[in-house]
Amino acid sequence: MSGKFCVSLTHGKNDCDRATVAFVVANAALASGQETMVFLSIEGVRLCQQGYASTMHEEGFAPLSELIANFAAAGGSILVCSPCFKKRGLEEGKLVPGAKLAGGASLVEFLASGAASVCY
User: Fold this and answer.
1) Which of 26, 49, 63, 115 is the most buried (most CB within 10 A)?
2) Distance CA 28, CA 89 (A)
3) pLDDT, averaged in runs of 10, over the chain (120 residues)
4) How far apart are the first and last CA of the chain?
5) What is the spatial distance between Cα 92 and Cα 82, in angstroms, rounded to a whole number?
6) For the domain that residue 61 is a member of, what is the CATH number?
7) 10 — phi, psi (to 5°)?
8) For residue 40, what are the domain limits?
9) Contacts of 53 (CB under 8 A, 6+ apart)
10) Where are the alpha helices (DSSP H) in 7-120?
C-alpha cells in the first residue's frame, strides 16, 4: 500500500454536489494519514481561484470554501491542470492556498507511485 490518495475533480459550480463530495473525501483521506492530492481539471480548475467557491454550499455539508481551506491547511496539495487553467483565462495571482499549476505528467507521476484514485 502506497499511503497516497488522489481525488480527480472536473466540476465546479456546474455540479456543486460533486465538487463538495470530492473535497469531503479528500479531507477524509488526509485525516486517515494518506498523502492526499486533489487534481483539478476541466471546470474544476475554477475552484483554485480565491472567492470562486465562496457561494457554494451543498446542504448537509460544510461550505465548499471551508472544505478547500481545511484541506490545504492540513497539508493536502491541490494540483491544477495548467492547460485547463490557461484555456479559461484564470489568474495565477489568485490561487487559493495549497494550489499550484501542474501538467498531466505530475498527475501521472503521483498515480504511478501506487496512489489510489477516485474521480468526481
Assistant:
1) 26
2) 32
3) 91 98 98 98 98 97 98 98 97 96 95 96
4) 23
5) 10
6) 3.40.1260.10
7) -115, 10
8) 4-119
9) 12, 19, 47, 63, 64, 65, 68
10) 16-31, 64-73, 82-87, 104-112
